[in-house]
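Readers of this paper often ask what the protein records in our data store actually look like. The remainder of this section carries one protein's record, kept here as part of the documentation.

:::
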Amino acid sequence: MKRSSVLCLLAAAVTVSASANAHAYWQWRDANGRMVYSDVPPSGAAARVLRAPGRLAGEYQPVAAASAESANAPAAAPAPAKAGSKPKEVAPPPTAEEAFQKRRESRLKAAAEEARKETEAAEREARCAQLRNYATGLQQGMRAAVAGPDGSLQHLNSDQRQAELVKTSASLEKNCR
Protein backbone atom coordinates (compact mmCIF):
# COMPACT_ATOMS: atom_id res chain seq x y z
CA MET A 1 0.00 0.00 0.00
CA LYS A 2 1.11 3.51 -0.66
CA ARG A 3 1.89 5.76 2.24
CA SER A 4 -0.82 8.25 1.21
CA SER A 5 -3.46 5.46 1.23
CA VAL A 6 -2.48 4.42 4.72
CA LEU A 7 -2.65 8.02 5.94
CA CYS A 8 -6.08 8.47 4.37
CA LEU A 9 -7.38 5.31 6.06
CA LEU A 10 -5.93 6.40 9.38
CA ALA A 11 -7.50 9.86 9.06
CA ALA A 12 -10.88 8.31 8.22
CA ALA A 13 -10.70 6.00 11.26
CA VAL A 14 -9.86 8.93 13.56
CA THR A 15 -12.71 11.00 12.12
CA VAL A 16 -15.25 8.21 12.56
CA SER A 17 -14.20 7.48 16.14
CA ALA A 18 -14.17 11.17 17.06
CA SER A 19 -17.64 11.76 15.61
CA ALA A 20 -19.03 8.73 17.47
CA ASN A 21 -17.79 10.10 20.79
CA ALA A 22 -18.73 13.71 20.05
CA HIS A 23 -22.42 13.08 20.78
CA ALA A 24 -21.87 11.26 24.08
CA TYR A 25 -22.33 14.28 26.36
CA TRP A 26 -24.98 16.05 28.40
CA GLN A 27 -25.88 19.67 27.73
CA TRP A 28 -28.02 21.80 30.04
CA ARG A 29 -28.49 25.28 31.43
CA ASP A 30 -27.74 25.71 35.13
CA ALA A 31 -29.67 27.90 37.59
CA ASN A 32 -27.64 30.96 36.50
CA GLY A 33 -28.49 30.41 32.84
CA ARG A 34 -24.99 29.27 31.86
CA MET A 35 -24.57 26.46 29.34
CA VAL A 36 -22.99 23.35 30.91
CA TYR A 37 -21.46 20.40 29.03
CA SER A 38 -20.60 17.18 30.89
CA ASP A 39 -20.29 13.43 30.53
CA VAL A 40 -22.55 12.91 33.60
CA PRO A 41 -26.21 13.99 33.94
CA PRO A 42 -27.11 17.11 35.93
CA SER A 43 -27.74 16.58 39.63
CA GLY A 44 -30.20 19.41 40.22
CA ALA A 45 -33.90 19.11 39.47
CA ALA A 46 -34.01 22.74 38.27
CA ALA A 47 -31.62 22.11 35.39
CA ARG A 48 -33.12 21.97 31.92
CA VAL A 49 -31.47 19.26 29.83
CA LEU A 50 -30.98 20.29 26.21
CA ARG A 51 -29.06 17.23 25.04
CA ALA A 52 -28.59 13.75 26.51
CA PRO A 53 -26.52 10.89 25.05
CA GLY A 54 -28.70 8.76 22.80
CA ARG A 55 -31.85 10.74 23.59
CA LEU A 56 -33.72 13.64 22.11
CA ALA A 57 -33.54 17.04 23.76
CA GLY A 58 -36.06 17.57 26.54
CA GLU A 59 -36.76 13.85 26.98
CA TYR A 60 -34.63 13.43 30.10
CA GLN A 61 -36.09 14.47 33.43
CA PRO A 62 -34.29 13.97 36.72
CA VAL A 63 -35.89 11.56 39.20
CA ALA A 64 -36.75 14.32 41.68
CA ALA A 65 -38.60 16.30 38.99
CA ALA A 66 -40.49 13.23 37.81
CA SER A 67 -41.64 12.39 41.36
CA ALA A 68 -42.72 16.01 41.94
CA GLU A 69 -44.82 15.95 38.79
CA SER A 70 -46.45 12.67 39.76
CA ALA A 71 -47.28 14.11 43.23
CA ASN A 72 -49.07 17.08 41.60
CA ALA A 73 -50.92 14.91 39.10
CA PRO A 74 -54.52 14.02 39.98
CA ALA A 75 -54.80 10.48 41.30
CA ALA A 76 -56.97 8.05 39.37
CA ALA A 77 -60.01 6.84 41.27
CA PRO A 78 -59.46 3.29 42.53
CA ALA A 79 -61.84 0.61 41.37
CA PRO A 80 -64.42 -0.37 43.97
CA ALA A 81 -63.20 -3.38 45.95
CA LYS A 82 -65.34 -6.47 46.43
CA ALA A 83 -66.44 -7.22 49.94
CA GLY A 84 -63.85 -9.28 51.82
CA SER A 85 -61.11 -8.88 49.19
CA LYS A 86 -57.75 -7.28 49.80
CA PRO A 87 -56.85 -4.21 47.75
CA LYS A 88 -54.38 -4.94 44.97
CA GLU A 89 -50.95 -3.43 45.31
CA VAL A 90 -49.76 -1.74 42.16
CA ALA A 91 -46.07 -2.31 41.53
CA PRO A 92 -44.16 0.66 40.19
CA PRO A 93 -42.84 0.22 36.65
CA PRO A 94 -39.30 -1.15 36.52
CA THR A 95 -36.49 1.32 36.12
CA ALA A 96 -34.23 1.14 33.10
CA GLU A 97 -31.51 -0.51 35.22
CA GLU A 98 -33.94 -3.13 36.57
CA ALA A 99 -35.24 -3.85 33.08
CA PHE A 100 -31.67 -4.17 31.80
CA GLN A 101 -30.74 -6.55 34.65
CA LYS A 102 -33.84 -8.66 33.99
CA ARG A 103 -33.06 -8.92 30.26
CA ARG A 104 -29.41 -9.69 31.05
CA GLU A 105 -30.40 -12.40 33.54
CA SER A 106 -32.78 -14.01 31.04
CA ARG A 107 -30.07 -13.95 28.34
CA LEU A 108 -27.55 -15.53 30.74
CA LYS A 109 -30.05 -18.22 31.73
CA ALA A 110 -30.81 -18.95 28.08
CA ALA A 111 -27.08 -19.14 27.25
CA ALA A 112 -26.44 -21.46 30.21
CA GLU A 113 -29.34 -23.70 29.18
CA GLU A 114 -28.07 -23.81 25.60
CA ALA A 115 -24.55 -24.66 26.78
CA ARG A 116 -25.95 -27.41 29.02
CA LYS A 117 -27.92 -28.88 26.12
CA GLU A 118 -24.86 -28.76 23.85
CA THR A 119 -22.78 -30.52 26.50
CA GLU A 120 -25.41 -33.21 26.98
CA ALA A 121 -25.65 -33.72 23.21
CA ALA A 122 -21.86 -34.05 22.93
CA GLU A 123 -21.75 -36.56 25.81
CA ARG A 124 -24.62 -38.55 24.29
CA GLU A 125 -22.86 -38.61 20.93
CA ALA A 126 -19.65 -39.86 22.57
CA ARG A 127 -21.56 -42.67 24.35
CA CYS A 128 -23.27 -43.58 21.08
CA ALA A 129 -19.91 -43.75 19.27
CA GLN A 130 -18.61 -46.09 21.99
CA LEU A 131 -21.70 -48.30 21.65
CA ARG A 132 -21.36 -48.40 17.86
CA ASN A 133 -17.69 -49.40 18.18
CA TYR A 134 -18.61 -52.10 20.72
CA ALA A 135 -21.38 -53.44 18.45
CA THR A 136 -19.00 -53.50 15.47
CA GLY A 137 -16.45 -55.42 17.53
CA LEU A 138 -19.07 -57.95 18.59
CA GLN A 139 -20.24 -58.41 14.98
CA GLN A 140 -16.70 -58.95 13.73
CA GLY A 141 -15.98 -61.65 16.32
CA MET A 142 -13.43 -59.75 18.39
CA ARG A 143 -12.78 -61.16 21.84
CA ALA A 144 -15.02 -59.57 24.42
CA ALA A 145 -15.26 -60.02 28.14
CA VAL A 146 -17.51 -58.85 30.92
CA ALA A 147 -16.73 -58.43 34.60
CA GLY A 148 -17.92 -61.29 36.74
CA PRO A 149 -19.44 -60.96 40.22
CA ASP A 150 -16.00 -61.26 41.82
CA GLY A 151 -14.48 -58.67 39.46
CA SER A 152 -12.65 -61.14 37.25
CA LEU A 153 -13.02 -61.05 33.46
CA GLN A 154 -15.20 -63.69 31.87
CA HIS A 155 -14.81 -64.06 28.11
CA LEU A 156 -18.02 -64.29 26.11
CA ASN A 157 -18.88 -67.43 24.16
CA SER A 158 -20.86 -67.20 20.90
CA ASP A 159 -24.30 -67.33 22.59
CA GLN A 160 -23.33 -64.71 25.14
CA ARG A 161 -21.81 -62.58 22.36
CA GLN A 162 -25.08 -62.77 20.39
CA ALA A 163 -27.12 -61.79 23.49
CA GLU A 164 -24.74 -58.87 24.15
CA LEU A 165 -25.06 -57.78 20.50
CA VAL A 166 -28.87 -57.83 20.73
CA LYS A 167 -28.75 -55.81 23.95
CA THR A 168 -26.29 -53.29 22.44
CA SER A 169 -28.37 -52.94 19.24
CA ALA A 170 -31.51 -52.29 21.29
CA SER A 171 -29.66 -49.62 23.28
CA LEU A 172 -28.42 -48.02 20.05
CA GLU A 173 -31.97 -47.97 18.63
CA LYS A 174 -33.40 -46.45 21.79
CA ASN A 175 -30.73 -43.82 22.54
CA CYS A 176 -28.79 -43.12 19.35
CA ARG A 177 -31.08 -42.35 16.48
Q: What stands out?
A: The longest helix spans residues 96-139. The beta strands are 26-29, 35-38, 48-51, 145-147, 153-155. The mean pLDDT is 77.
